[in-house]
Amino acid sequence: xxxxxxxxxxxxxxxxMPFEIDPASVRTEYELLHLLRRLxxxxxxxxxxxxxxxxxxxxxxxERLVLSNWPAELVRQYDAGDTFQTSELVERxxxxxxxxxxxxxxxxxxxxGAGKAAVFRLPPHAGMGHFAVLLHTTYGxxxxxVLSGTRDEPAGAERATLYLALLQLFECLExxxxxxSGAREKLSSREVECxxxxxxxxxxxxxxxxxxxxxxxxxxxxxxxxxxLDAVNRMQAIARAMRMKLI
Length: 247
Description:
Blueprint: H1 2-16, H2 29-43, E1 47-52, H3 61-64, E2 65-68, H4 72-81, H5 88-93, E3 100-102, E4 129-136, E5 142-149, H6 156-179, H7 183-186, H8 189-199, H9 204-211, H10 215-228, H11 234-243
Antiparallel strand pairs: 1-2, 1-5, 3-4, 4-5
Helix pairs in contact: 2-6, 8-10, 8-11, 9-10, 10-11
């Protein structure tokens, strides 16, 4: 019996220990993702998400996401529903600096009336609880960090530990923003224009007409901008350009 209890006792001891982070040692998003996975594993969550707090309706949910291990299908459902900016979660975060906790209802539109679809109750978030905090960059830009899982609602010292851990991880994230600031000087005005129009939902053909250049040239600008921003595709390049306030 002693042997069978040791793993559980070890997990409990680890959970009670502070989640130590050295923000100065984290330089890349890959390292930050590794720390976020460690955090949710230690505290029994399944998913994490860091996104810009919605301030208007000009962006899709997927474009607000910065770091996440949410399934792609779930992100697509949020995009299709276009409800994140009106969710109970966002509404409550706008009214407090304290952590917000709750169940699947947090992801539903605030004041949801009968008959409205609740795609957020579909797997994998059905039955899950959420722990969310509002965080700000040094320049005041608001972000939301959410941990989701089927575990009990955090309370007491654990609640404070999670808040501190997310604050430290967010500082690490802001450092990665600063590390990419050199791209501001590297991107040409045409590359910025193409990214800006793409973020507004324009296709390459439409951008070519707007800028009076060929679609082939537009594609070349996207390729060079993606390389300079150290992105893997056009969407990631747009997201990084937004984070660095290039567009």
